[in-house]
Amino acid sequence: MLERFFWIFSFIVAVLTAAYYIWNLYQKWTDSPLIISLSPDPVSLVEIPFPSITVCNMNNAKKSEADRINQGTDNLQKVLLNDICKLENGTSTNDLDSESGKWSNVQRFMINVSQPCTDMLFLCRWHQNTTECEKIFNPTLTDEGICCNFNAVHRKYLFYNPRDMSDLNVTFPFTSVDWTPEQGYASKTPADSIPWRPYGAGRHLGLTLVLDAEISEYYCSSTASIGFKMLLHNPVETPKIADFAFTVEPGKETRIVIRPTVTSASRSIIRVPRKKRRCFFTSERSLKYYRTYTQRNCILECEANFTQQICSCVQHYMPKSANTTICGKKDEKCADQARLIMELKLYDDENTTSLFNASQTENIAVVHLYFVDSQFTAHVKNELFGFTELLSNTGGLLGLFMGFSFLSLVEIIYFITLRLWCRIYRRKSLSLQTPLQVMPQPHQYATVYPFAQ
């Protein structure tokens, strides 16, 4: 009994210890399934596009156009001017509010009062060549109004139904390809296709811009300053200038060094639940308006849907359908609240309507944008603990504490299935056999065998 008790106790301790460590291993597998590491292979600049660049003048409306509107009799344009400059609408009526919410009226007004790209861009140098700015820049719609964009994909590759840019004089003299962050460039993509790729590192191989602020035309600014707002972003995303752009001051030369950050994901992590890996593959999530799923596109589309749901309108820069109402001054509080809820951050919407004295500041700003390294290290998201690692570690723990192996598992299966069935079958067969009896012969002694029953 003492020996049996010793082995039973040892077996129970071994099972409990192995179960404890296996449970910890399982928790690690479920709680931390991924690891982000540095890729062993450097990524060349020719594998990624040059950033898409959007430049906006801080001036929301040209002074010459604002004076013409204020001196005229078109009340609708006065309402739209007050809306874009965040002023009170003294002439607002229900009819005017209805007309000011139509996208066709808003778009036509913004085109008239915004600084055109031909006036903003004084000089452009791309890949060491002086280039006509209108060939590489296009007007684009942002939360800061109509701005100028470089190296964005063609609108047919950006939206399912690209109606917002139809009247902005958008031209693509160069071939545009359907580039996405997940698929990248095809192997035979021409070098001069949009989105363009950098030729190398250094200022001479980057983009140089000479911008004209036209300070004499300032009527109302989006901030308490003058100059430009600039944002470097993904070529398949709509830029949000107000929240993420940096400023470029006139009268100064600015150098912007580009250091890309690229994070890729192994296809094997698609087996990991989305809440654990915290990312989506393009095939797993589709959007209503955007053709390519990115986090920023998803957030902007969700913000548009949420704003329309609670305010019955959307901001002019948001993706929308043909008949969607545009939010005006009367909807500003509701739209701001929707944006606050969606992005979970406070916004400073104070704007200035002060006039600026052009004689105190130079108009010209020079900007250089370029890479400093021809190669960079990418981050790779991969499985930290896959099923193979879980299986091998579990087997190691069972072997260490219980001498367990795959053949031990086969033996267990054998004893609880085939061996058990054989024993039951044999017992059943023996119970059905006829007992053997030896009858004594006449006039003879009966011989009784010891094995007879």
Description:
- By secondary structure, the protein is of the alpha+beta class.
- Helices cover 35% and strands 18% of the residues.
- It contains 15 helices and 17 strands.
- The protein has helices spanning 2-31, 63-71, 75-84, 94-100, 103-113, 117-120, 133-136, 155-158, 241-244, 274-277, 295-311, 332-343, 387-402, 406-416, 418-432, and strands at 34-38, 43-44, 52-57, 59-62, 121-126, 129-131, 137-142, 145-150, 207-212, 218-221, 228-233, 246-248, 253-258, 263-265, 364-371, 375-376, 379-383.
- The strands form five sheets. Strands 7-8-3-11-12 form a five-stranded antiparallel β-sheet. A five-stranded mixed β-sheet has the order 6-5-9-15-13. The chain has a three-stranded mixed β-sheet with strand order 1-17-14, with no helix packed on it.
- It is elongated.
- The two termini are 36 Å apart.
Mean pLDDT: 79
Extract low-pLDDT stretches: 345-360
Strand content: 15-25%
Structural class: alpha+beta
CA distance, first residue to last residue: 36 Å
If strands are numbered along the chain, what order do they take across the biggest sheet? 7-8-3-11-12
Shape descriptor reads elongated
- The number of strands is 17
What does the radius of gyration come to? 37 Å
How helix-rich are the residues, as a percent range? 25-40%
Number of helices: 15
Major β-sheet annotation: 5 strands, antiparallel
